[in-house]
UniProtKB/TrEMBL annotation, chain A:
<dbReference type="InterPro" id="IPR045509">
    <property type="entry name" value="HD_assoc_2"/>
</dbReference>
<dbReference type="InterPro" id="IPR003607">
    <property type="entry name" value="HD/PDEase_dom"/>
</dbReference>
<dbReference type="Pfam" id="PF01966">
    <property type="entry name" value="HD"/>
</dbReference>
<dbReference type="InterPro" id="IPR006674">
    <property type="entry name" value="HD_domain"/>
</dbReference>
<dbReference type="InterPro" id="IPR050135">
    <property type="entry name" value="dGTPase-like"/>
</dbReference>
<protein>
    <submittedName>
        <fullName>HD domain-containing protein</fullName>
    </submittedName>
</protein>
<dbReference type="Pfam" id="PF19276">
    <property type="entry name" value="HD_assoc_2"/>
</dbReference>
<feature type="domain" description="HD">
    <location>
        <begin position="61"/>
        <end position="177"/>
    </location>
</feature>
Automatic annotation (TrEMBL), chain B:
<protein>
    <submittedName>
        <fullName>YwgA family protein</fullName>
    </submittedName>
</protein>
């Protein structure tokens, strides 16, 4: 291992509301935090549009990344009491934890849906490309950036290391559940992390948990389950995401039609054309996106203008619960009626399903697709969590799917024009809810 | 309306039954890599490219009775068989979604074993790496599957064959 980065003369600390302090002793980590690519994460919110539902949810990918690093630092120290870490492997773990989200863009969930980009690919591009992050990582060794990238991509040879950053109970989730609970202000999402870290043990393919710590693991799974339904699947946040996606779709369609924007959206050109470079990508953050949304409120295109005003003024779409099998029977009539009243259904009538959301539930690992959480029995045997825990078993089999139909209720309630058609639309929509 | 769901239903209409979650996961991934219009997000999991989005979408379609799922007990694990239901077929008709001409390719993929598709999808996942690095990845990450050099060569030949077939379709 190269000697370029050693231990800082004096430990640096960041005050953090979730972990109290984030401790940095390694020069490498300090240098990585100072890179422009990492600092960009300060301008990207962790939960996208959730701040429109929970006003406290203004925390950023920067906070979260530091939090994941801190948890990984504690994991590595704790596991170090049961095993010996190669010094470079330890730095691989810490760097991967810190950089695991560095490829996220602004409102990345909607962006990825509309432009078919993948933040994990951008993470690899930033770590392996011509960036300050890459230069810093190379200070450890020429192959070090590749190792960090492989851990994040889950293709690293040491599967224990991979499992610490991405598995069904990992540093990433442990931080985001607690952090998102703290900033949204909800009372879910809390679990005994100290206990989890104390009962974590290394095994060949993944970290496992002492059976005596099962209740701490249960608590974590329950927190995760409640956070999904209470925060991540919140229907109001989903409405904001729907509008955001439709704005991006509209802007992209207009660009394709040769529409002349009042203020040329040059930051979007490469996204629209599908040929985005790393340099272009790194210029995108939420300030840039919100600047254009502000400007597009003045555009002559009525759809783009109206959707941007909606988003900026938080006049979100309303929703009804939706059963797609029943919906399909009335869908043609709805489409026709929307057309008649002058609302393009491609932008104003949207079904949003839970599979469009980026969060996943605990799964016991059937057909070997996902590694389950394993408990370590006193005799050395491993048992899958849901086979030992009634609580986890009870929620593992529960329905995890959900569909909602979003529409601009305010426009439909304006009865000055097309009163009969609007009344009929509302009847069809509300009939869905039974 | 729910185009991504309709697209998957169209796959079942073209292939008939698909046996095994792993096979379905790898089949869609390979089709995506062949530039068929699938947009499910994949990540490399312990057993190869895997999409949580696809997993949840399948679960949704089972709850909606668009897809029939049959669970069978095998030695030490459960296997799932998927096919299009009458309700799913009706939804597909009403959605008016048409998957491009993919039937030959999808059927050929469906005829392969899930173990071979796992290898093919892994090779495709690392397609930007030189062949020797791909071999290294396969032997390191898939050590338990005991793939041989000949197996990997076969996967490369199969990929070339599929790409050739897709070019003919265009």
């Amino acid at each position: 291992m190269a000697e370029r980065y050693g231990i800082l003369e004096e430990e640096k600390v960041f005050k953090d509301p979730v972990h109290r302090y984030i401790h940095v002793r390694d020069e490498l980590i300090w240098e990585l935090i100072g890179t422009k690519e990492f600092q960009r994460l300060r301008r990207i919110r962790q939960l996208g549009t959730t701040y429109l539902t929970f006003h406290g949810a203004e925390h950023t990918r920067f906070n979260h990344s530091l939090g994941v690093y801190e948890i990984m630092r504690r994991m590595v120290d704790n596991l170090g009491q049961k095993m010996t870490w190669d010094p470079e492997e330890r730095l691989v773990c810490l760097s991967a934890a810190l950089l695991h989200d560095i490829g996220h863009g602004p409102f990345s969930h909607s962006f990825e849906k509309v432009f078919h980009t993948d933040h994990e690919e951008w993470t690899r591009a930033i770590i392996l490309g011509d960036t300050d992050v890459h230069t810093v990582l190379k200070g450890i060794g020429n192959d070090f950036p590749q190792k960090v990238s492989d851990v994040i991509a889950k293709t690293y040879s040491n599967k224990l290391v991979v499992s610490l950053i991405s598995s069904q109970i990992d540093a990433d989730r442990m931080d985001y559940l607690q952090r998102d609970a703290f900033y949204t202000g909800v009372s879910y999402g809390h679990f005994d992390m100290e206990r989890l870290l104390r009962v974590m043990r290394p095994s060949e393919d993944q970290a496992v948990f002492k059976h005596s710590g099962m209740h701490a693991v249960e608590d974590y799974i329950m927190s995760r389950y409640q956070m999904y339904w209470q925060v991540y699947f919140h229907p109001v946040t989903r409405s904001a995401e729907v509008i955001l996606s439709k704005i991006l779709h509209r802007a992209k369609d207009l660009y394709g039609q040769g529409y002349q924007f009042l203020d040329k959206p040059k930051h979007f050109y490469s996204l629209f054309s599908g040929k985005i470079t790393l340099e272009d990508y790194l210029k995108l953050d939420e300030s840039v996106i919100l600047y254009y949304f502000q400007e597009w409120q003045e555009e002559s295109d009525p759809i783009l203008q109206e959707l941007c005003r909606r988003f900026m003024e938080r006049r979100l779409f309303k929703y009804v619960e939706c059963d797609p099998s029943a919906q399909m029977k009335i869908w043609p009539e709805l489409i026709q009626l929307f057309g008649k009243i002058g609302l393009d259904p491609n932008y104003y009538l949207v079904i949003d399903s839970s599979s469009d959301l980026p969060y996943d539930f605990y799964r016991p690992g059937e057909e070997e697709e996902r590694l389950p959480i394993n408990l370590l029995k006193p005799n050395g045997d491993l048992r899958e969590l849901s086979r030992e825990s009634d609580v986890v078993e009870a929620i593992s089999g529960k329905k995890r799917t959900d569909h909602k139909l979003y529409f601009p209720k305010d426009l439909l309630e304006d009865q000055r024009t097309f009163a009969d058609e609007k009344k009929r639309i509302m009847t069809l929509l509300t009939a869905q809810e039974g | 309306m729910l185009n991504e769901h309709a697209k998957l239903l169209a796959v079942f209409r073209q292939t008939g039954e698909i046996i095994g979650r792993k096979k379905l996961q790898k089949l869609i991934y390979i089709a995506k890599k062949l530039d068929f219009p699938f947009f499910e997000k994949y990540q490399f999991h312990f057993y190869g490219p895997y999409s949580e989005e696809l997993n949840l979408r399948m679960e949704e379609m089972c709850h909606l009775s668009f897809v029939t799922e049959v669970r069978e007990k095998k030695s030490g694990y459960y296997q799932y068989r998927y096919s299009l239901s009458d309700q799913g077929d009706e939804f597909l008709k009403l959605s008016k979604y048409h998957l491009p001409e993919t039937k030959d390719v999808l059927n050929e993929l469906n005829e392969q074993s899930s173990k071979f598709l796992e290898l093919v999808s892994t090779v495709l996942y690392f397609e930007n790496l030189p062949k020797e690095d791909v071999l290294d990845k396969v032997f390191t990450l898939k050590a338990k599957q005991n793939y041989s050099v000949e197996d990997v060569e076969e996967a490369y030949r199969f990929i070339d064959h599929l790409k050739g077939k897709c070019e003919c379709l265009q």
